[in-house]
Design a protein that fits this description.
Elements: E1 9-12, E2 15-18, H1 26-41, H2 47-58, H3 65-75, E3 78-81, H4 88-105, H5 115-126, H6 130-136, E4 146-150, H7 155-171, E5 174-182, H8 186-198, E6 203-208, E7 211-217, H9 227-240, E8 246-254, E9 259-266, H10 284-293, E10 301-303, E11 309-310, E12 316-317, E13 321-325, E14 330-337, H11 345-355, E15 360-365, E16 381-385, H12 391-401
Parallel strand pairs: 14-15, 15-16
Antiparallel strand pairs: 1-2, 3-4, 5-7, 5-8, 6-7, 8-9, 10-13, 11-12, 13-14
Helix pairs in contact: 1-3, 1-7, 3-7, 4-5, 5-6, 7-9
Length: 404
Amino acid sequence: MLTSDLVRVSVRKGEVFPRFVDPADAEHRALAGLLIETFEAHIGRTRGELDAELKEVLGTGTSFLLHRGLAKLLLDRCRFDTQAPAEPEELRRAVFAQAAKAYHRSGDGQALVDRAEVLRQAAGELGLEVSEVERGLYADLKDEQVLEAFDGCSAPWLLERYNTALAQAVLLRAEELVIEIRGETTARYRALFRKLKFFQLLHRIRAEGDGYRIVVDGPMSLFRASTRYGLQMATFLPTLLHFAGWKLEARLLWGKRRLERTFRLSAEMGLASHTRLTGQWRAEELDWLPEQFAKLDTEWRVSTETEILDLGTQGVLVPDFVFHHPPSGRRVSMEVFGFWNRGAVAGRIELLRRHGPTDLILALSKALAAEPEALEDLPAEVYVFRTAPVAREVRRLLESRFSD
């Protein structure tokens, strides 16, 4: 992710335009290649040595923002570690203790302490070589950390990653994000909507024609701007890039004065995702339910291949599970709101009260459960759980409320 000081944009007529680069440009490829080679050449060397080498390439002015941005993305692919034969604090403690002893032995304290002798004494006490003590004495300082591993990449990949990172950095200033998407299968829509829940984004989805309109509250719309929430929203963008037929418009609060600005993206811009589209995203707590439910003695069957329930102009519902009762043919959906959905519960309850389906279980974490009066007149059944939905309790609810 790019930090705010590395964002390259132009602002014209109230709209923010990121200064994307052409991944096919020979000059840009040469720069990206040089930086990648520099990182690869410093595997096993210190961060200080890497920084010194990079200084000659990165520069300090605004003309070098691209250089520093690419380097930042490469740094994110590095793993630095402290390499020392013992904890550096322990080494320093032993050396300083020996230095203090030598000082007191000097009598009037005027004689110089023999550094080599101090290191030799400390090394002997620790059972190490003098060279090991010297090397590890300040190995925990940032500049002395060693580049242990670097996840290499190609120059075109890095330039494409830069463009996406630039768009992500702009979205960190979003007050609201509106996405329109069309032409996808139900399974892919479902995957996209579940990803919104996975990233804990406050959102509203409404069917429009042959597609959907998704409104996402941005970090700047919250009562207190949240860095973590902003990162979650920015991290969602690469998922959207896997889809076709989408366009995005964000309302921004831009700059120190937080002026209202607009930012637009679409599939036609050709931004590339650096993530894999794996299909299903689910909180770990929800993985347990199908496994445990399948072990129960019941005629009900559970599936995660749920339908998208259209609530008309008010929005859509994307259940986490559907329970099927083959003897009667009845189907009951269940939407789960755990701790990761705190901001959406009140809106969902009101939506269900006015437009919700009847064959639905609304599962709420105990930490989110509203006051009893807030749950009155709901067409859905409400199930409150502690940590995660429990298969036996869900079966009991199905058999008591939905079995004919």
